[in-house]
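An example makes the point: we print one protein in full, the chain in one-letter code, the fold tokenised, without further comment:
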Amino acid sequence: MRRQLAAIAVALLFAAPSLAQELPTRKAGLWEMKMVFDGAPMPAQTMRQCIDQATDKAMQAQHGSGGAQGAVCSKQDFKTVRGTMTFDTVCKLGAATTTTKGTITGSFDSAYTMKITTTTAGGPPIPGMAPGGETKMTVEAKHLGACQTGQKPGDIIMPNGMKMNVLEMPKMGAPGGMPPGR
């Protein structure tokens, strides 16, 4: 299960943040994000994240223009046509090159859907993902209201109940902000 959770976190680090400079900030509060991996031997995963506008912007800045920290992107195409955002990125982190394409529909105030296709070549294997293969993921996000008692902006409650704060991940010293051994 920890490997699956790590795969989810890695997928999100590589997919969505490479668009960080282009995306609007989400409405403050508690967001539920359901991730469905098409064709992967992993069940759908749902996590909840508490954010405020400052945290959402800080997370985007933390991951910068290249997705995971330290990535360098040679391509970042982002377009919005009739309410649908499309993106196409190519980023390199160490020996791995990740190509990500997708669409985003909906509202960053209430609910949105992100469909992502990612191909990674080179580098170490990512748990739960086919080496050199294509990974297709759909993220369905919806705003649930105010954060729960005891949550602070940046807190993510993983499917197994584990809580981590995405703003504290880089302090753990792992590449891309991933906690060691997760």
